[in-house]
Design a protein that fits this description.
The complex is a heterotrimer of chains A (about 290), B (about 325) and C (about 400). Chain A has about 290 residues and is mainly α. Chain A has eleven helices and no strands. Chain A has helices spanning about 1-30, 40-55, 60-85, 90-115, 135-160, 160-170, 175-180, 185-210, 215-230, 235-255, 260-275. Chain B starts with 15 loop residues before the first helix and ends with a helix. Chain B has about 325 residues and is mainly alpha-helical. Chain C has two domains: about 40-155 and about 300-385, Response regulator (Rossmann fold); about 160-290, Response regulator (Rossmann fold), CATH 3.40.50. Chain C is built from twelve helices and 15 strands. In chain C, the strands form four sheets. Chain C has a five-stranded parallel sheet with strand order 3-2-4-5-6, with helices on both faces. The longest helix of chain C has 20 residues, at about 325-345. The N and C termini of chain C lie far apart (about 75 Å). The chains are: A mainly alpha (about 290), B mainly alpha (about 325), C alpha/beta (about 400). Chains in contact: A-B, A-C, B-C.
Chain lengths: ~290, ~325, ~400
Amino acid sequence: MNVLLHQVLSGLATGGIYASVALALVMIYQATHLVNFAQGELAMFSTYISWSLIQAGMPYWAAFFITVAVAFALGVLIERVIVQPVENAPILSVVIVFIGLLVIMNSLAGWIFSYTIKPFPSPFPTAPLFGNSYVSSHELGSIGITLVVLLLVFAFFRFTPLGLAMRAAAQNPVSSRLVGVRVGWMLALGWGLAAAIGSIAGMMVAPTVFLEPNMMAGILLYAFAAALLGGIDSPGGAVLGGFIVGVLENVVGSFLGTELKLTVALVLIVGVLVIRPSGLFGKVHVTRV
Amino acid sequence: MTTPSSTPKARPALSRNQLLGLALLLVGACVLPFLISNYRVFQFTLVLVYAIALLGLNMLTGYNGQISLGHGAFYAIGAYVAAILMDKFGVPYWATLPAAGAVCLVAGFLFGLPALRLEGLYLSLATFALGVAMPQILKFKGFEHWTGGVQGIVIVKPDPPAWLPISQDQWLYFVALVTLLILFLIGWNLLRGRIGRAMVAIRDQPIAAQAMGVNTAMIKSLTFGVSAMYTGIAGALGAIAIQFVAPDTFTIFLSITLVVGVVIGGLASISGAIWGALFIQFIPNVADQISKAAPWAIYGVFLIVFMYVMPSGVAGFIRIAHGRLRRWRQR
Amino acid sequence: MKFSLKRRVSLLAIAATLAVVTAPASAQKKYGPGASDTEIKLGQTMPYSGPASAYGTIGKLHMAYFKMINEAGGINGRKINLISLDDGYSPPKTVEQVRKLVEQDEVLALFQTLGTPGNSAIHKYVNGKKVPHLLLATGATKWSDPKNFPWTLGFNLSYQAEGAIYARYLMKNKPNAKIAILYQNDDYGKDVLKGVKDGLGAAGAKMIVAEATYEVSDPTVDSQIVTLQGSGADTFINITTPKFGAQAIRKAFDSGWKPLHIVNNVSASVGSVLTPAGLDKSVGLLTLQYYKDPNDPQWKDDPAMLEWRAFMGRYYREGDPKDATNLYAYLTAQTMVQILKQCGNDLTRENVMKQAANIKSLKLPLLLTGMALNTTPTDFFLVKQGQLAKFTGTQWQGFGDVLSTGD
C-alpha cells in the first residue's frame, strides 16, 4: 500500500511536468489550431538561456523573468519570420516546418551547450515539505506554478478581450478580419505566449530531469498524449490529462512491470480516445453539411 | 506521371507524351545499375524501397486525409516478418514479400477500425502512439524467441539466379524495381477508379460522401489496410537490402521521416513517392557533408526551405510549373 | 680511363642490382587500399545527429587528435585522414555509410564505429570484405570472436565482464544481499544484466529480488526507483546511462533508500553524473574503472591528465573537459596510432589486423595505474582489466587488486 501511495505521489509529480508542457501545447492550439511539435525544443532552448544567465551570476528570479520575456519574443519572432510564409500552405506542410524547427533547435543546443547533463537550480527549498520522502519541495512547488499559469491562461481566454480575439482569429480568421481583429498579430501573440509558458515548463522540469538537449523529447510525447486526453481545446483538461498520464504511467509500471509500461500507457490513452474521441473535456465539434 | 488531383472525375488513360516519358524513365531505371558502383546501386535500391513505403502512406494521408505518424510500425512489422520467415523458417526471400504484405494488410485494417472514430489530431496521436510503442513491443521478452530481442536478426542477402551474371546488389535492385512497378500499377488503378474517388471524397467532404452512399467506414479501414500493406512490403524489401533488423532501427524517427517524405514529395501524387524517397535517402547525406558540427540543423533548414519554395511538394511544384508553361505556350 | 658505353651500362646494371638486393626488407613498402606514401585513410560512423548525438564528441575528438598527430609529422611520415560519417545511430544508415567507406572511399580500416545495433548490422559485411573493423565504440561482448569474425576487434571493457565482476564481488562480500537491478532496455543494458546474472550463477540467482527497465525516451526513472525500493532490496545495481544514472542516484537518496549502490562504468563520471546528482548523495557508490576520471581531484596534477587537458584546450576547444567520454576517445585514438605505428611500412589490411591482434602490454598513461592493453591472435579483448572503486564524496578511491576480466 505504501508503494502504491508513493507511486501515485511520484506520478503526480511527473504528471505536473507533463501538465505544464501540455498547457503550452494547448495554448498554441487555441491560438493557431496547430500543434507545434517544436514546442518542447523551444522550451529546452529557453531553459538553456536561463541557465546561461544564471551561470553568468544573475540571481534565479531575475533570470527566470528575463527568460520568460526572451522566450516570448522568440516565439513572436519565429511566428512572424518562419511560420508566416507558409501560413496558407496545407497543414502537413506547416507540420514539416515545425519538424524542421525542432531538429534545428535540438542540434543547435547540442552544438552550443554540449550534451553533458547540467544541474539546474530550483527556486524552492531543498528540504522536502514536512520531511516526507515521497515528493520534493520542488516537485510540489512546480505543480503549484503550473496551476497558477493554468489559472492565468484560463482567465486570459475567458475574461479578456484579447483572449477572445485570439480564439476568434484561430477559429475563423476570415470573419475575424472582417470585425477588425489583426489576425497575423494574434497568431504571433499566441506563439509568444506559448513559448513563454513552455519556458516556464522547461525551467520547472530541468531540476528534476537534468538539463540536456534531449530533455524534452520523452516529455513532449507524454504531454501530447496528455493534452489530447484532456481535450486539445481545454487548458484545464490538458493539466488534468497531464496528472492522469503521470499517475497512470507509474501505476502501470509498478503493477505490470516496466518492460511494456510505455505501450500499455499509450494503449490505455488511445482506448479512452476511442470512447471519447474529443478527449475528456474537449468540445465536440459539430460540422455543418 | 500526372495524378488524380483534388477534383475527382473520370481519368483518361495516359496521353502519348506521358507514356513516352514513362517508358524513357523505365529504360533509364533499368540501365542505371550497370553504370554506377554497387554501393550506389544499394542506395538507389533503398530509394525504391522508400518510394513503395511512401506510396502506401500517401494513399492514406494524401488521398484519404488520415494522418498517420506511426507508419514506421508497419514498416517494422513487414521487416520482421521477412526476417523471421527467412531466418527461422528458411522461406525464400521473394515469398516473404507477399507474406509481409498480407500480415500488414490485416494489421492495418485492424488498426484502422477503432481509429475510425478519431479525427485529425486525435488520429495522429493514436498512430504516433503506435509508432512510439513498436520498438518496445519488439524488444519484449515474451517475443524474444522470434524477434531476437534487442540483438535483432541478421539476414542473408539473396543471390541472383545462376544464369544471370549480375551482382547481388543489382539483382536486389531489379527485384525492388519490379515490385515497385507492380505496386505502383495496382495503386494507380485503385486511385483512379471508383475506390480512389471514394477515398478523395471522404477526405474532402466526409459527410457529403456518406450521404451519397459511400461506405465511409469500410473505405477508411480498407485504405488503412492497403496503405499498411504497401509500407509492410517496403519494410520487407528494406530488411533484405540492409540484411539486418533490430527494434531500435524502427523508432518514431522512421515514422516522422516517412511523413516528411510524403509531404516533400507531394501529397496525393504517385510520382511524389519517388521524389520524397530521393529526398529522405540523400538529403541527410548532403547535410552531413555540409556540416559535421550540427548536421541535423542543416537537415532542418532543408525542410523549411523546401516548404517555402514548394509547399505542395515537388510533385505539386512540377504540376504548377507545367501548368504555367502550358498557359504561356498557349498565349 | 674512359669506360666504353657497353661497360658503363653493365656497371650501372650491377650497381642497380646490388642496390635492390642489399636494400633492407623494411624499406620495402606494401600498401593496401587507403594507404600510400603520404596518407593513411581510416573510416568511421558516428551519431552526429539523432538521439545519440551526445556521443558525436568522440568522432570530433578523433579528428582533433589526428590533426595534432599530423601536425607533428604523422605516423612514419604519413598523414592520417579520418573519414567520419554520420549515421544518426540508425543501422540502415550505418550499413550505407560503411559500404561507402569500404567500396567508394576504400579506407584502410574502420576505427571506432559506434553503437551495438549499427555494428551488428555491418559485422558480417566487413568480415566478408576483409576490412579491419577495429576498436569498436561499444562494449558488447560479441566483438571479440577471432574464430568466426577475424576482422573485428573491440575496445571497451566488455559489458558482460563488468557485470560479472559486480556479481562476483557481491557473492564474496555480501552473499546474503537482496539485489534490485535497474537497466536500460536495450542491447547495452541487457548485456550488463546478462553478465551479472551469469556471474551470480544458479546459486546466486535468488539474490535478485527486483528488476526494472526504462526506455531512453522516458523522462525520469523515479517511478522505477520507487518500485525497486519497495521490494525491500538492500543492494542496487544501477545499469544506466549518465542522465538516468544521475536521476537514480538522486532519487534513491531523496527517498531515503540507502542500499549498497553499484553504478556501472558508463555512469560513473564525477563531472557528468555525480556532480549533477549531488556529490553528497553519491557517497559510498561502487563502480569498476579502467581509466582516470577527468573530474577526479586525485588526478589533478597527473602528467597524463595535464597533457590531455592541454590537448583539449589547444585542439578541441569545443569539447567539454568535464565529459569523461572525451578522455575515452583520446585513449582509443592513442591505441589506433600505436597499431599504425606497429605496421611500419607494411600498410596492408592484413598487416593492420595482424598488428591489432598483437598489442603487447601497451601502458597508456591515462589508464589506471597498473593496467595495460593486450591482444593476441586468439584473444581480441583489448581492455581486460578494471579496478573496483568507492566514491568518498570527492573522488573515486580504488580498492583491491586490478582485476582481470578474462576467464
